[in-house]
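C-type lectin domain-containing protein
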Amino acid sequence: MNVQIEHQKAINDAYQRQIETLRTEKTSLQSNISFFGCGKCLTHWIFYNSSCYFFSYLESHKVKKNWPDSRADCVSRGADLVVIDNQEEQKFVSHTIENMKGGPNMWEDAFWVGLTDSKAEGTWVWINNVTEVEQRYWRDGEPNNSGHKGEDCGAVLPSSSNPWKTRNDSPCEFKIHWTCEMPSK
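Tokens:
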């Protein structure tokens, strides 16, 4: 009986190693797809990890919108505001906006994302109805609803010192750039 248990454990361990190998291979293949541009995205959109991203700055660095109008613009393009749901996507968005900065203050380089606490103050929810649980991505001291009557919309700001701490709460009526996301074709 002990021999059979040990044999089953060995089989299980082998399967676990295979799963990890396949996960690593999947990540590598997804990176290669992105590198070779196999995904099909519209003009002014960037392919990354099976999705297409629109950074409004690339179309016009002068046009800025409030959060509701930014979301409406994304929807009119067949997309929605970006939902950042993993570390790789956080790093991709952070690095992409970092390369677009150039304004005199941080809000000149900010981008709306699909994150809001408009339904319940302090409960941040992505537009796909997933509650934000990753506090580590917020800038130090954020979200804070500070100095304004309602900072209910989420934005990302460039941070050359820390690409993990880029999220900030902001009044939804601020006019800044925005980021849309949709599946690639």
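The helical segments are 2-36, 56-59, 67-76, 87-98.
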